[in-house]
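Open question from group meeting: does this chain pack into something compact, or does most of it stay loose? Before anyone orders reagents, we agreed to write out a predicted structure and look at it together. Recording both the input and the output here so the notebook holds the full record.
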Amino acid sequence: MIHITAQMRVLVAIEPVDGRKGIDSLVRVCQGHLCEDPMTGCVFVFRSRRGTSIRLLSYDGQGYWLAQKRLSKGRFTWWPASSSAAKRLEAYEAQLLMVAGDVSRVRAAPMWRRVSELK
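Structure tokens returned:
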């Protein structure tokens, strides 16, 4: 299971990917298209071309985890826009995306301060 904590970096691939891609293919997308090292412990989020499923890829130090959520009805209507290949999400936004599917329509408690800003 992929557990997303507030300290984790979460990157969302802006462009959709082929839903048939496995771990090795998604690792190559991270390296080639997103220009990121998939072995850093970052959680990568990908959306299928049809928008009916999302996949999360993460490396835990021993191997890769790949999780998928496929909606039984509808599509993931919200997806971030960016001029770059990936966009960073806060951990709570990634959790809202997985649970609610549309981050823009769900109200959550504001981020008061980042963990890295604590002294």
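Observations to bring back to the group:
The mean pLDDT is 85.
The chain has two helices and five strands.
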